[in-house]
Design a protein that fits this description.
five-stranded mixed beta sheet, seven-stranded mixed beta sheet, 12 strands, 2 domains, alpha/beta, Aspartate Aminotransferase, domain 2, 15 helices, Aspartate Aminotransferase, domain 1
Length: 503
Amino acid sequence: MIQEDPADSAPAAGADATEEETLDPEDWPAMRQLGHKMVDDIMTYLQTVRSRPVWQPIPDQVRDELNRPLPKKPQGAEQAYRDFIDTVLPHPMGNIHPRFWGWVIGTGTPSGALAEMLAAAMNPNLGGAEHVPNLVETQVIEWCKQMLDYEPASSGLLVSGGSMANLVGLTVARNTNAEFDIRKQGIQAAPRAMTLYGSSEMHSSIQKAVELLGLGSDALRNIPVDDDYRIDIPALEKAVAEDRAAGLYPFCIIGNAGTVNTGAFDDLSRLAAIARREQMWYHVDGAFGALAAVSPDLRHLVAGMKKADSIAFDLHKWMYMPIEVGCVLVRREEDHRRAFSLTPEYLAHGGDRGLLAGSRWFSEYGVQLSRGFRALKVWMSLKEHGIEKYGRLIRQNVRQARYLAGLIDQAPDLQRLAPAPLNIVCFRFQASDLDEEALNRLNKEILIQLHEKGIAAPSYTTLNGRYAIRAAITNHRSRREDFELLVSETSRLGRALVKAPVS
């Protein structure tokens, strides 16, 4: 028997109501003043970002400060903010800086940051119900379809990023093309082992999704690529035919719209034709490259993408939105909903009246029931700038990549290691008297010093066994002078290190 705690029992008549507490401020004018200061400080921080190092090592005293015990007593909002200013703000990842080109991470915008504040103040749950934030997300999804020239009747969902978008898209692919009721019986009931196909340049999130879906990484066929890092079409067709002959069940082809290592685009139209011929699902991972569609000069790169059954892409990459916001689009709404819809009594909804109304409950199209208002920053940003400006910025990044590639090609001690068809440039410092192993160590040290000295923040990859410094340009703040500095400093550091070799 559960005994009632006296503190939880109903209060006696006349009990002192002042014992009830809230997390709202006791002094609203003081909180308002602090809020104004926060906005002023952060706008100055963004405005002056170019004057600071891209990145700097985290001091021991900061690590110590962030290893303190759980606070038991109030410290107050002003103290909490001072701690943020002193401890957190000076040591960012660096991706808002003009010379950040690491991985593929967008820069965010001032208005996007303010939109995040507005969304947090409203604090809605976009799992469902009848409220305007759901309509905002619906409109953003419609705009995404228009941006990519995708099927108007298709379904969509805003998610945390490309990894989740791939997981959702491949879940729909698996469930729709399975030869049995996979939601009821589970993957162990499959009459034949299911297989899916993409290039060896696929993002790791694809393999993670395949593993989470219970298919196992062995089911994912990594097809070789050509000299331009695009999927080898004859090798793909051969692999599908061999698997069919072996009694397996090929069910999905994955196309890359901008690979993570080099920015290569698979032949999306040919992949669509193969998928249709083989009666397979066609999923496109367009994490950043899909958004080439918004630039008239680059749209040809994604000509076959609109034939996909599902598309995954990120708005916080090449649309420069604050992290996190990605999107998945699914051609047939019924396939999308059938893969995820589950409505117990406590989530029952419908009708045309009350909070339980609303024709679209986003919880029926993905994993999450609790969902934040990530649509607001996209909605406000698109209204502020218009899609044509985003197209110009994307084209600007591509031109900057070509400018960087040209600088590298002209530099006597630098070597470009891959084509630069879009916005990713891979290169290294070259010294003729060093073997490949020594060159790899040397370029790794160059990259670390670029980071530690606060000069620039590219990342790296390995291409054909060669360590490559990799600049992925999804930054609306970068200027040509920034790439000139990257080239000159890479050469300077390389020459200095050759004189004092890295052990």
